[in-house]
Amino acid sequence: MPVLRIHTNVARSKIPATLPKELCEAIAKSLGRGVDSCNCVINPDQLVSWGGNDGIEPCAQVVLLVFGGLGPKENIGHAKAITDKLVDSLGMAPTKIVIHFQDAKDFEVGFNGTTVQELLK
């Protein structure tokens, strides 16, 4: 159940409506999982200061939360998939995207009124 959260200073009006779906597809492919359980949330219009600047340049802070599938080598592929999609769709420089990878435990995430740990039993 990958969850991708993107905080960006890009205006909502400049974000294609299809981008969340496209990001889900990209990350599902990178993780080798089905897209049906992937979640993507884009928080546009954020006030950002990057490196002490005024935040005019498009930039993003990204969190990818996953149960397994992360590691030193794997994260390089995930970073490329996310970065390429944001660069292509929003025109931001790769140097203005930071990604935090979180490997969650199944008991740390709830879904459908219980925890994922219980659902996997």
From TrEMBL:
Q: Which residues cross the membrane?
A: none
Q: Name one GO cellular component term.
A: extracellular space
Q: Where located?
A: Secreted
UniProt-listed SUPFAM superfamilies? Tautomerase/MIF
Q: Which reaction does it catalyse?
A: L-dopachrome = 5,6-dihydroxyindole-2-carboxylate; 3-phenylpyruvate = enol-phenylpyruvate
Q: Which UniProt keywords apply?
A: Cytokine, Isomerase, Secreted
Q: What domain of life?
A: Eukaryota
Q: What is its main location?
A: secreted
The EC class name is isomerase
What single Pfam family name could you report for this chain, choosing any that match?
MIF
Report the EC number(s), separated by commas if there are several: 5.3.2.1, 5.3.3.12
Q: Name one GO molecular function term.
A: phenylpyruvate tautomerase activity
The UniProt entry's sequence similarity note says:
Belongs to the MIF family.
The name this protein goes by in its record = L-dopachrome isomerase
To which species is this protein native? Orchesella cincta
